[in-house]
Every structure is written in C-alpha cells, then in structure tokens.
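Minutes, project check-in
Item: structure for the 247-residue chain
Input as provided by the requester:
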Amino acid sequence: MRISIEFNSKRDIILPLHYNYFLQAYLYNNLSDKDYSAFIHEKGYELEQKKFKLFTFSRLMGTFRINPEKGIISFKSPVKLIVSSAVEQFITDLAETLMRKDDSWLGNNLLEVSTINVHRTPQFSAEKKVKMISPMVAYTTLNNENNKKTEYYSPWNQQGVEIIRQNLINKYKAINGVEPEDKNFNIIPNGNQEKKFKKIITYKNTVIIGYDGLFKLTGNPELIQLSYSTGLGSKNSQGFGCWEEIN
C-alpha cells in the first residue's frame, strides 16, 4: 500500500542536508498505535538474524535550495512525501493519525497536511520500468576481531544485484514463512551512468552509499511488487530504495 502526503508551511521548511533521520522519526512519531510503533522501530519482522521493517519512503519532493556552507536544505511549500509498505496497518495508522491532526512537527518545522492520496496499485508483470525516488542500497558487512567493515555495491555490479535479489527473497520469507517458488529477479540499468547516480548520504553519523537512476526490473512479478511496497535493497526504513513506475 502506498500514499503520498502533501505538506504546507507558512515558512520555508529548513532541514539538514542529510535529512533521512528526520523523516523516519516523523513517521514513527505519527503512528497512533504506540505498541505497533515500538514493534516496528525496535524489532520489526524477523527472519533468522535479520530484521525487516517492510516500509520505505521517498526523498522530499518540491522546490528547494541548498546552502552547502551551513549544511542545510530549504524547501518552499508545498512539499510531497511518498510512503510505501507491505503492511497495510502501517499506512492506515499513519494516514488516519495525520488526518486527525491540525499540524505536526518535522524537526523544527511546523507543517500542515493538506492532502493524503492513496495510490492505485500498479499491475505487475515480469517487467517493470522504474525511477528511483530514494537511492537503492546494497552492502555486505565483514566482521573481524577488531572492527566491522561495510562494503557497498552498485546495481551496475552483478554482485550488487544479487544482494538485492536475496534481500527480496528474505523479505518474502519473513512475510509468508516460505521462500517464493520463482526466485528470478534482475535489475537492468538504463545506460552506463553509475558515477552520475551515485549518492553519498549521512544517516546518524554513518556514511551510506546508494544509487538513483532509471532501471528495468525483470523476474517474478511477486518480487517486483514486493520491491514496490518495501523498497529495493537495504535500509528501506531509513529512506532508501523507494521507486515509482515510468512508461
């Protein structure tokens, strides 16, 4: 299930340049079922040692300007946010909570929700052309005696695609209890634009590498649909991996 939320503000909406954490906190804070909010935030849906929150969201969409010296981004009202989840309870709770409020705080910005639109679920087949509206992330973590090393992979790299495919299979199993019969899934980039679409984002003092761009997803329609609901790749609940359909 997916919604878009449009916000208005009497002033410019000013956020840190890397504002994913502020959006994530906003979503958690606007779930009225606090037990469910705590469950999603602290535990999520588990599979072996992995935890999945099963939601994702876009970057803020609107007119903005960046002040690199101050490390801030300023948006003109209105702005739009897309939120998507495989768990209907998450979306309905969020939407109903926001509709009951006159206003809400995003960081130090007082916002009014002007509209909430429920998206029509697309038809899913074995092929879908998509545009990233928040970067997709694929990584591995190596642990040794002294430290932990994280290595990020590009969707232009087959190892990155395989990490994302396995991530979707794990999400499917976390939801359904079994792996999908058809495990086929592939990501085909639109041209050799890896450097252009590479994004470096800081989330709570952690540097994350992700990728925007246009891609063709092929394979099991159920896995493609799951990537629409929960995001492509990892760190979806931190604002990564959200995509929209293009023609």
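Outcome recorded: DSSP finds six helices and 18 strands in the chain.
No further action items on this chain.
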